[in-house]
Amino acid sequence: MTMNAGRSIHGAPEHARKQAANPILTIDGSVARACRLTPGQISALPHHRFLDLAVDREATFLPETDWSGVTLDDLLALAEPLENAMWARVSAGPYAFVVPQSQFASTLLCDRIGDALIPVEKGGPWRLVNPDARYNMSVKWVDRLTLTEEEPDNSAERIAVARQRARDAKHARESGL
């Protein structure tokens, strides 16, 4: 398989393929008991369809896809969050998106598209789906949820801003601006 900058020609980075081969989701940080969960443990929790969540469809940036998964509220309850846990840093290796506590009930950690498990090429085994965030903040290959008291680094947002600046600079160069 051809590799380019840590990515296969099929789009999934090497760390994602390793995670898919031995999927474990870690929950840690401001919790009473850290957890390491398997796909079976997560699939046993109550699941919700993204399309059924009560969200303003006009404000949603995600395409209508039949995602289903566990709310962050239900999932994080397993680790018994401390009272001061106000943020969840949802990570896939070094890439992370930050979810405020106010969005835990509407944010899903998905493990299914329709009736099928999410394949690694589409972000499996777990993918974050947040109706209040842009689609490019839908973290693929989630491997860790870390609860924090203070707002943690949001590498996803930093990367998105840097990419947009690069696109803008390229456009300006090509336009002769």
Q: If you had to describe this structure to a student in words, what would you say it looks like?
A:
This protein is an alpha+beta fold and 177 residues long. The chain has a single domain, classed as Alpha-Beta Complex (Sulfite Oxidase, Chain A, domain 2). The protein is built from four helices and twelve strands, in the order E-E-H-E-E-H-E-E-H-E-E-E-E-E-E-H. A five-stranded mixed beta sheet has the order 4-3-12-7-8. Strands 5, 6, 9, 10 and 11 form a five-stranded antiparallel beta sheet that branches. A two-stranded antiparallel ribbon has the order 1-2. The chain is globular, with a radius of gyration of 17 Å.
Give a quick set of tags describing it.
single chain, alpha+beta, Sulfite Oxidase, Chain A, domain 2, 5-stranded mixed beta sheet, 5-stranded antiparallel beta sheet, 4 helices, disordered N terminus
Compact overview of the structure:
By secondary structure, this protein is of the alpha+beta class. The chain contains 4 helices and 12 strands.
| Biggest β-sheet strands, sense, barrel | 5 strands, mixed
CA-atom Rg in angstroms: 17 Å
The CATH architecture can be given as Alpha-Beta Complex
If strands are numbered along the chain, what order do they take across the biggest sheet?
4-3-12-7-8
Category from helices, strands and their pairing: alpha+beta
Tell me the number of strands: 12
Mean pLDDT: 81
